[in-house]
Automatic annotation (TrEMBL):
The family this protein is said to belong to: Belongs to the thioesterase PaaI family.
Matching InterPro entries: ACOT13, HotDog_dom_sf, PAAI_dom, Thioestr_dom
UniProt source species: Ramlibacter cellulosilyticus
Record-linked Gene3D superfamilies: Hotdog Thioesterase
Record protein name field: PaaI family thioesterase
Length: 134
């Protein structure tokens, strides 16, 4: 797997509105993918706080890319469950969205996502996910 393949999956497999998040592949390893979610006024609420909907979409997208990385290619999948906890506001900085595959079997995959401020490194959002592999 390489960064260009993972970055190229964004326009190939995701809806145009997801592409408008401006996600960029920052890093990857055997079990995880990290995306940068750029700060953008269009994704912010009062006070410049990144909205939860944008974080959840970025988390879901990052996990699909982590599965692409895990399997070595895109496999059709669908989100079955996503449990998200918002720990603190994210404002004035980009977010780093790290998705880790915990287990991937024949029919289901499980993962966790941590979103941190790119500037201060503080965790702002945690999510766990289950995907059906189609």
């Amino acid at each position: 797997m390489d960064r260009d393949t993972l970055q190229g999956a964004l326009p190939e497999y995701f809806a145009p509105w997801v592409q408008e998040l401006g996600l960029r592949v920052e890093a990857f390893d055997a079990d995880s993918v990290t995306l940068r979610l750029p700060q953008d006024a269009r994704l912010s609420r009062v006070g410049g706080m990144l909205c939860g909907q944008a974080m959840m979409a970025a988390a879901d997208t990052a996990m699909v890319l982590a599965l692409v990385n895990h399997f070595g290619a895109f496999r059709p999948c669908t989100t079955v469950q996503m449990n998200t906890s918002f720990l603190k506001p994210l404002s004035g900085q980009d977010g780093l969205v790290r998705a880790t595959v915990l287990r991937a079997g024949k029919a289901l995959a499980f993962g966790e996502i941590d979103i941190r401020g790119a500037g201060d490194g503080k965790s702002v959002c945690r999510a766990t996910t289950t995907y059906a592999l189609l």
